[in-house]
Write a structure and sequence with these properties.
By secondary structure, the chain is mostly helical. It contains 11 helices and 5 strands.
Length: 274
């Protein structure tokens, strides 16, 4: 009887091929990972190369900003590359030809001091008065009150200008300075009047703290400037509604002190006759 023939060559070949395929796959993965790392490194290097330095900003053309009208007009100057960080100015700059000698942008409705604060922020990342400590401002006495709200209005104007120019970091900075200033009732009313006249209804960032301030203190402060407070409510119904909403919300959150059964019944209806 012939001895059986055992064929193992095919199986061995298959195992070798499988092991070979695994090694190839691992090599390909390693190669792809290395290529991806190289591409990322090259992209990072390219970004570092194109990122402008401060000197690059200073090499850019000078832009004239014409502030105000007629005899009251003033011209301020700034480098184009810095102004272009604002979407508003970036759009205006596209109107200039490459060879334009004079580059002027009219800014007739803005205040010189406010625009100056904006430019100071572009160049330094801050504007005067700078923040000092946790709650103060340089050169400003924290306990001092002011009747006209001038300092509050300064920062409110910077805030609304930053909104117009699309510079969010400046908005945040200006709003933070508002909360570092003490003021009188009349000053707070002047500030609230400006904000409600110059900001959209959905700008809760600056409106909500005003409603909160008056919701907590109106029962005291309104007596210091009652006529002005009343006129503010009449001129800006949104202000009165926001303050009332704050008071009612706070009352509701107190946990049911004023429950419905404790509230007197309405006395408007007359007793029925007969």
């Amino acid at each position: 009887m012939a001895e059986p023939v055992v064929r193992i060559g095919a199986v061995a070949t298959e195992d070798v091929e499988m092991e070979g395929n695994n090694e190839v796959d691992e090599a390909l993965e390693t190669l792809e990972g290395a290529e991806a790392a190289d591409e990322e490194e090259e992209l990072t290097m390219e970004n570092d190369l194109v990122k402008p330095t401060f000197v690059d900003y200073l090499k850019s053309p000078i832009i004239e900003l014409s502030i105000g009208n007629g005899d009251q007009s003033t011209t301020l100057y700034a480098h184009q590359a810095l102004l272009a960080q604002s979407p508003f100015f970036a759009s205006a700059i596209t109107e200039f030809s490459n060879g334009a000698v004079t580059r002027r942008i009219p800014f007739e409705t803005e205040d010189v001091k406010t625009v100056g604060s904006f430019l100071e922020f572009l160049y330094t990342g801050e504007y005067y008065p700078r923040r000092s400590g946790d709650s103060g401002l340089e050169g400003v006495t924290g306990a001092a009150n002011e009747d006209d709200g001038g300092r509050l209005l300064d920062h409110a104007r910077v805030y609304t200008l930053a909104e117009k120019l699309g510079v969010d970091d400046l908005k945040v900075l200006a709003h933070s300075k508002v909360h570092r200033i003490n003021s009188s009732a009349k000053g707070e009313i002047a500030y609230a009047r400006f904000v409600y006249a110059n900001t959209p209804r959905d700008d809760l960032t600056i409106r909500k703290p005003i409603a909160s301030f008056w919701g907590q203190r109106s029962h005291v402060l309104r007596h210091e400037a009652e006529d002005d407070f009343k006129q503010l409510c009449l001129d800006f119904p949104d202000f009165g509604f926001d303050v009332l909403s704050y008071v009612l919300d706070a009352r509701e959150k107190r946990g049911g002190k004023d429950r419905e059964e404790d509230v007197p019944k309405s006395a408007r209806k007359r007793a029925r006759m007969g």
